[in-house]
Write a structure and sequence with these properties.
alpha+beta; ten-stranded mixed beta sheet; 31 helices; about 45% helix; elongated
């Protein structure tokens, strides 16, 4: 079907849709069943069997299985079967860990998927792009990623960048008119928008014609799933650490085996013991546990309204030292309300809050001025030069579109000017707002066929283009623009954002470039609007400051407005600097770097300035988090260490450039994400500390016994059981640990900090040595009292090693003392430890398992010895920070 050749009415008819109401929900559901989800075919998932078999491809596991086979051939069937079962259970645990991580990452991909603004049953709503169906009416705005093939039915300066389709990076100006030419290629179909392309300018509406693999992109198979699982910097560090640990563990294992053989132990026994020790000593489960900890942490962030698009951001969040935040919508509620008007050289107040339509227009003495000259014209023009819409849901008015435009509509409704009055003016052309122009213009045709140019925008941009003003006696020369400037300053000092509006009559048929038309304008007045700070922001800013993180406000607002808001929420301290966009233009990057640490507010800036600000902070050694929502913010977001985009107001381009998406556009969510990011990193350090200290203890107990010419305290199957029971579950539970109370009281972590920094290496070695020593002490005491009962001594040593590690796990929860935290706070850890103790008791007391694990029943006296020895490492070191 050549959709580009059809007129708008023909497209509407063929797709059986209504451009005024959109599809009904039931019809959309029916079409979804027919056409399938709007996604491109992705790579086949690895089968579950392959994932399970992958758990056994580790070199040491293969060696162990080979040794087990030899053991079986030599008649040691019980040991062989026991080791096989343990290896199988270990494989199951690894499989479930990997499955959990993959499911978490898949869920993350779904949450981070693009959305589309669709007309359904007469109301605009945002839905996941995969739910689009042919016939859906879609709204397109600058910065949106186009997520299906569409026939454009309305355009206001709409331009798209189609390099993903054509290789050509220059934007294409779109039309809504039918093209009758036959056989046009996609790049020449200027009334179509294609999946995978990008809206770079303007706005418009379109009807979806094709979805999923039926799109041009789907047919030529150029937009396949490109999401590849890449390791985070932390995972790279751990991979390098793993190589070192393998070398050390193998070296110590070889030493144990050689010394054992030299001392007369059977070669076969020492070989099997050595392989078992190597399997236990090498923390092969570490990468899986790290992935699980990261993915579960990401899920917790999602519950706090923060979507992590790149796992590396989790690690970087803990290093953030500066947050550069937008004001509107992030620090404020993004519910703009007109509170004051400047008109006829006078200032009026407007009552009512939020999107409530009740309100009055009052002068300084409280008298009603709703019949004031030019007031109706100002409010009417503000509602015409406007792309927002008012909707009613559950009895409440909501704004669909830009909040500033919404505030103008609400103000007009308060004066009794509804949408019918605005509809009497037909829009001929729109010159959209962008961050460089800082204004929006429309050419409209009125009821008497008169043409008017209406312009609204930043006062400092608009006033220089005004030669006249509208006074009580009508149009007159703008003789005293400084009076308008004084009104702007007064409004700004009250934290009001100002917007100017102006008009210009046009001769019939006159069109042209905006820059040519937007001069000699007639100034009408100023809107003074407020977007109140979010209630939770002041507390979040304070908490960030205590965490050593500087918050910087970046806004396009007037300096006085920005300063007033910054002071209200605690961003601007006494002596803190405010820098304007004009001052930024006059500074070199070197000059900016010299003062940047004293600047807390950047006002009247453009998105182009953001990149300069990011570079200046980075030059001073800061790790910078940068927020943004518009397409022009993408370069700064990409250049920052942690790019943060807005989930509600953000464009798809900005989201793709970012590593973190705020689902609620709220600054407090950034603070929560940093809090969670710090905790995830600390939890990873906790289970590294636990796993390695335990492994050191296992190796050393065998090495010390051989050096003392004693029998081996543990047999291979016991070593593997310790590895299974005490390493897996408690380590995962540590990854779920709650943050310590001072996690946001510490300074940001240095990104170059090693895994073993802050005394972690000493803690691992010291605790590991002690765990090995106390296990050996318990073994020696038991063996000397009953030299004929080697099984008895080994059972005591086995139980002591397990209990020492399970007690030590609570010491790993804090960098302070073992009693710094409530041991029952982490219920997952308590459950893991109880489960491990129960499994240990089963091996010791259940008779069918005793010959397999070389154990025997123990009495109260033995348990007093076991618990006394097991508690020693924590008792000696658990009360200090070292």
């Amino acid at each position: 079907m050549n959709w580009y050749q059809l007129g708008k009415a023909e497209v509407e008819k063929k797709l059986a849709c209504d451009v005024q109401k959109g599809l009904a929900d039931k019809e959309a559901e029916k079409r979804g069943m027919k056409f399938g989800p709007n996604v491109l075919s992705s790579e086949k998932q690895t089968s579950r069997w392959l994932i399970f078999l992958k758990q056994f491809q580790d070199f040491m596991v293969i060696v162990l299985l080979a040794a087990t086979l030899i053991s079986g051939l030599l008649g040691e069937y019980v040991d062989a079967i026991a080791i096989m079962v343990i290896v199988f259970v270990n494989g199951l645990i690894g499989y479930f860990q990997e499955q959990k991580a993959e499911k978490s990452l898949e869920k993350l991909k779904e949450l981070a998927a693009p959305v589309a603004t669709v007309l359904r049953e007469g109301a605009w709503e945002q839905i996941p792009s995969k739910n689009l169906v042919p016939g859906d009416v879609v709204k397109l705005s600058s910065g949106d990623r186009i997520v299906a093939d569409m026939r454009i039915i309305e355009t206001k300066g709409l331009e798209t960048e189609e390099s993903a389709l054509t290789g050509e990076s220059l934007p294409v100006l779109k039309s809504d008119q039918a093209i009758r030419t036959v056989g046009l290629e996609a790049q020449d179909q200027t009334n179509m928008a294609f999946m995978g392309t990008l809206v770079t300018k303007g706005s418009g509406k379109a009807i979806v014609t094709s979805t999923g693999m039926d799109t041009v992109m789907g047919q030529i198979a150029t937009l396949m799933s490109t999401a590849k699982k890449t390791a985070t910097p932390l995972e790279y560090k751990l991979a390098e650490l793993g190589k070192i640990l393998i070398a050390v563990a193998l070296g110590l294992t070889v030493l144990v085996v050689v010394l054992g053989i030299v001392q007369g132990h059977p070669v076969y026994n020492m070989f099997l013991a050595g392989v078992s020790l190597a399997v236990a000593a090498i923390p092969e489960g570490l990468p899986a546990i790290v992935t699980v900890a990261l993915s579960l942490g990401v899920q917790r962030m999602i519950r706090k309204k923060a979507i992590v698009r790149k796992l590396s951001a989790v690690e970087t969040l803990g290093c953030a030292s500066v947050i550069c935040s937008d004001k509107t919508g992030t620090l404020t509620e993004n519910r703009m309300t007109v509170k004051e008007l400047y008109l006829n050289d006078r200032q009026f107040s407007v009552t009512g809050d939020g999107y409530d339509l009740a309100g009055k227009f009052l002068d300084s003495s409280g008298r009603d001025v709703s019949s004031s000259p030019n007031l109706e014209a100002m409010l009417l023009y503000g509602s015409i030069c406007n792309n927002a819409e008012l909707q009613v849901k559950k009895g409440k008015h909501l704004v669909s579109g830009d909040p500033t435009d919404g505030a103008l509509l609400i103000a007009a409704r308060k004066a009794g000017i509804d949408y019918k009055a605005a509809e009497m003016y037909k829009t001929i052309r729109e010159y959209p707002f962008d961050s460089d122009r800082k204004r929006m213009s429309v050419i409209v045709e009125g009821p008497e066929k008169e043409r008017i140019l209406i312009v609204k925008g930043a006062p400092d941009v608009l006033l220089p283009r005004c030669s006249f003003q509208l006074g009580e006696r009508g149009k007159e020369l703008l003789k005293e623009p400084q009076r308008v400037g004084q009104a702007i300053d007064q409004m700004a000092s009250r934290a009001l954002r100002t917007l100017a509006i102006a008009v210009k009559p046009l001769p019939e048929g006159q069109l042209g470039e905006a820059s040519m038309l937007e001069k000699d304008l007639t100034f009408i007045g100023l809107y003074g609007m407020i977007d109140p700070p979010r209630k939770e922001v002041a507390g979040a800013v304070k908490e960030c400051r205590e965490a050593g993180i500087k918050t910087v406000m970046i806004t396009g607002d007037h300096e006085l407005t920005a300063k007033a808001i910054a002071e209200q929420i605690g961003i601007l301290p006494s002596g803190g600097k405010v820098v304007s966009g004009k001052e930024l233009n006059e500074m070199t990057e070197k000059q900016l770097a010299t003062v940047i640490d004293d600047v807390y507010v950047f006002a009247r800036v453009t998105p182009a300035h953001k990149l300069k600000i990011v570079n200046a902070f980075q030059d001073k050694g800061h790790i910078v988090a940068m927020t943004g929502d518009g397409v022009n913010d993408a370069p700064a977001i990409k250049a920052s260490d942690i790019g943060i985009s807005m989930g509600i107001t953000g464009t798809d381009v900005t989201k793709e450039a970012s590593s973190l998406v705020l689902m609620d556009d709220n600054f407090a969510t950034i603070k929560s994400a940093i809090h969670e990011g710090r905790n995830i990193y600390e939890n990873i350090r906790k289970f590294i500390r636990y796993l390695l200290a335990s492994n050191v203890g296992e190796i050393l107990v065998m090495l010390f016994a051989i050096l003392l010419s004693m029998p081996l305290p543990l047999v291979p199957v016991q070593i593997l059981w310790v590895n299974l029971v005490t390493d897996g579950l408690p380590a995962i539970a540590l990854g779920l640990d709650q943050p310590e109370g001072d996690v946001m009281k510490k300074k940001p972590r240095n990104p170059r900090e090693g895994i073993f920094s802050r005394g972690l290496g000493f803690k691992i070695i010291s605790r590991g040595i002690l765990i090995g020593i106390v296990t050996l002490i318990a073994f020696i005491i038991s063996y000397q009292n009953n030299p004929d009962q080697l099984t008895y001594a080994r059972t005591v040593a086995f139980a002591t090693l397990v209990m020492a590690q399970l007690i030590h796990v609570f010491d790993c929860r804090s960098d302070h003392s073992v009693f710094a935290r409530n041991p029952l706070q982490n219920v997952y850890l308590v459950f893991a430890v109880i489960s491990s103790v129960a499994l240990l008791a089963v091996v010791i007391y259940w008779q069918p398992l005793q010959p397999i694990f070389h154990t025997m029943e123990l009495g109260l006296r033995e348990w007093l010895l076991i618990l006394g020895c097991a508690a020693l490492p924590t008792a000696l070191f658990g009360f200090t920070k070292k």
